[in-house]
Design a protein that fits this description.
disordered N terminus; 339 residues; 14-stranded mixed β-sheet; 9 helices; 34% helix
Length: 339
Amino acid sequence: MVRKQLLVLLLAGCLPGFGAPPGPGVLPKTEDPAASRIVQRADLFIQSLESSQRDSVVLSFDDPRRKLWSNNSYNVVSRPGISLGQLSDTQRVLLQALLQAVLSPEGYLKLMNTLRLDDWLHQYGATLKDPYWSYYGSSFYWIAFFGEPSGDGDWGMKFEGHHFSLNVGFRKGKAYAGPLFLGAHPDLFRTGPYAGFRFLEDEKDQALALVRSLDGEQRKFALISPDLPPSDDVRGASGKEFFLHTPEGISIQRLDGSQKTVLLRLLKDFTGTLAPVFEKAVLAGAPDIPGNLHFAWMGPESDPDRFYYALESPGFSIEFILKEPLHIHTLMREAAPLP
């Protein structure tokens, strides 16, 4: 953890000056103080908004955009809410405090790395005088609320931009967690002042170690294609894909003890991005984990710069793709739509 905190400091220069049956994971109502803290911080942020800002940020719980997500840049997709670039410093501090409460400490550091990497892309494009990269940057991440935050009502929040989409909330006081998209570009710096920086390294290294540890019989189940997915991207964008209902790959039951440990560590790398109240909701919506968890691999095993894997159980999947050298996309979601 300390090592990853230092990496964030290295990229950003400083940390912010404060203080963390089926259906998408829904957790039974609880008096969890962490949930109360989320509501309080959401309310503080909303109170900081001017009336004109509030009208575009606090929307109806029934707004269909609550159930949609995209990682396209803002010139391609219009997002609800208000962008970081439109907020004052005081409002950004309050929003960051809310994000710290919604994410785990590890998840918050992932988000900060994602934002800083997008700023790096923006600056890189300016150096090249290439307008394509001008659409990326931390300023172009949006926050929106659907319903008024409360302890027992219906409300949700979406924080989304190029390489992060967070969709969480509460329905009748019960926590839910929808699709969580996280990307990185570049995931590694080989030269320059950040040489040696790596992002999402555990999610990459542990999967490579697991697939390379499989014996001949295990590989027959785990390796489902020598090629990447046809789209060269995560496959679960719509929620209609068959593997969200019928898992592919090798079952955890066919792995030995050390291999099971690695698979469960990978699972925790993803579910543990969220604060415990939402992580528990995810796992509550995937009751077949861990007993019916599967590991599926696509692409070459010998190329550490281009591969795909998924962790799957009925109605649930986690995907990771190194779609091109240095460019990672990940997605955790359930087959069912948001409640």
